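Thread: "does anyone have the structure for this chain?"

Original post by V.I.:
We have the sequence but no experimental structure in hand. Need at least a predicted one for the grant figures.
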Amino acid sequence: MNPTNTSVAELSGNGQLVYGCDYNPEQWDPAVWQEDVRLMKEAGVNLVAVNIFGWAELESSPGTYSFDRLDQVLDLLHAHGIGVNLGTGTSSTPAWLTTLHPEILPESAAGVRAWPGGRQAWCPSSPRYREHALRLVGEVVRRYGSHPAVRLWHVSNELGCHNALCYCDVSAAAFRDWLAARYGTLDALNSAWGTAFWSQRYSAWDQILPPRTTVSTNNPTQVLDFHRFSSDELLGYYRSEAEILREHSTVPVTTNFMVTAHIRNLDYWSWAPHMDVIANDHYLDHRLDSPIVELAFAADATRGLAQGQPWLLMEHSTSAVNWQPRNIAKVPGEMLRNSLAHLARGADGLCFFQWRASVQGSEKFHSAMLPHTGTDSRIWREVLELGSILAKLKEVAGTKVQSEAALIFSWEAWWAYDQESHPSSDVRYLDQVHALYKALWETGVTVDIVAPGADLSGYKLAVVPGLYLVREDEASALEMYVRSGGHAVVTYFSGIVDENEKVLTGGYPGAFRNLLGIRSEEFYPLTPGQTLALDNGSTASLWTEATRLEGAEARASFSEGHRAGTPAVTRNRYGAGTAWYIGTALDPAGIREVVAEAAGESGISVLDSPQGLEVVVRSSTDDGYVFLINHSDEEHKYAVHGHELITGEDVSHVVAIPAGAVRVVRTANPESPTHGLRTGQKDDESD
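Reply from O.Q.:
Generated one for you, tokens below.
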């Protein structure tokens, strides 16, 4: 009964944009529920996630179920026209389960068993956990599979957020089974893992363990395969829940991904095909240098997982979270900008954690749609404002983001890149990804995030940050793209190893050496804070290489240090296309310069705008929607023709975007992402 072609807008109940929240009625007296539903209707909420952490509420002891309260909640929501995103309740184990079966609890690499009392206190490989969890799923779906309120099934919650990697004996046995299926023979495994090194060769399957804590460094391929196994193991668990749900219900099934800077343990490229709707949780991360740029990257990556189709933001925050070192509240207007930035980049639904702020538990200082101060608050007024704006933007539902550039992103490369025993522990995969993405964002280039080996034929520009691990066919796909007329930008420490972490010999950057027309003999990392000048005025940090030209031309060279005179940035004509190589960590202006030149050379449409004004275009067959998000403290103007949906004003020449505000302009009959825009026009040109 697996539904197909499920659109996010269908989840609203009337084909509009989804406006929703996570609701935990078990935390409140039933007398509060009536007020909650009344206020939800006032705000425009049309989808509510319930029973996310409901296991102990539904099954107070083994096999003893009580659904009375959940029945009341679903019936109450349905009576008020609010749909339900129904959780299976399996995310966190009840106390009776881990007391009865402590072997369910996960273990760290050092062999330390986690205690219950938090959440996700279960081993993904535990058959005992699955037995109890899947029994609960069956009870829930048989009771609510045909309930008219239920519009979406929510498997578990943020799978792998805390327990993705378990090193217990049960996990070890499951890991060996996974390896046997992957390699077939011990000889093949020994070859792939390079076990001739350090006398690590295995002569029996039961000798193999997860990469537990050792007295030295671990085998890199063993670590990489354990990440692959762990992602697959949790995906297998998701699929086991989904199978039961689909057996008894035609309602679409999904779970909430965590495409964000601090979660890396699941390969969502392998997960996405198993979702009926792609959903993501995202929280602004103030530990990063550019939180709003990371938000944009996460939204674009989620759209990539959805294959360009609209997706659902299942969780974000109205203001502060509770789990960062400093939980900074959002300033007035910031919640609206964050929300509409996700909408601009392909979301057809915006949901929050949570509806009513908790007064107990570890998340009691996490913001909510209805804060501790109640309706007489800035947050509540902004919640009402966002609901009103989403109603005005309903025609955007179903439209798609237009992009002419692709950024290749790989969870496998991330796992491999950040391992031990590399040339520099200061060089990290996501830093490279974010640096290159930020340059594109600031240049005004809208980007699709794609997997290695993806079809690039529809793009004018492909950017490849830090693709350290690459398969032969993935490298060939990029090579063929450029040979056929494409343009690519590749950054340092790319193409170094194959899928088994085996170095590609003959000179760096291995798999991309011919494409880039260069050959590097040795890496020369820089110390923290050390910079080197380049002859084009840029500066370099973190990384240098002993690079020589083998067909490419130098576009920037080091002008100091022992690498003085050697190339830092190169450009190579390859077939009908061009491939750039950035062989060092350029300063932000330097990266932007390379990106802008490569984009211009490719003929890409750049949505030029004043600094601080984010511009994204969604379009349908008939209309384009230009999202203008002003992150700055001053008013900006932008040249565009059409009808502004938030204010209801017609725009004949320019639209003014007040400081901190958002405007969305409908333009008719878009022929390209820039229809209705005069790219390159600045404020002083449009007065």
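V.I.: this helps a lot. The chain has 17 helices and 31 strands.
O.Q.: and The first helix runs from residue 30 to 43.
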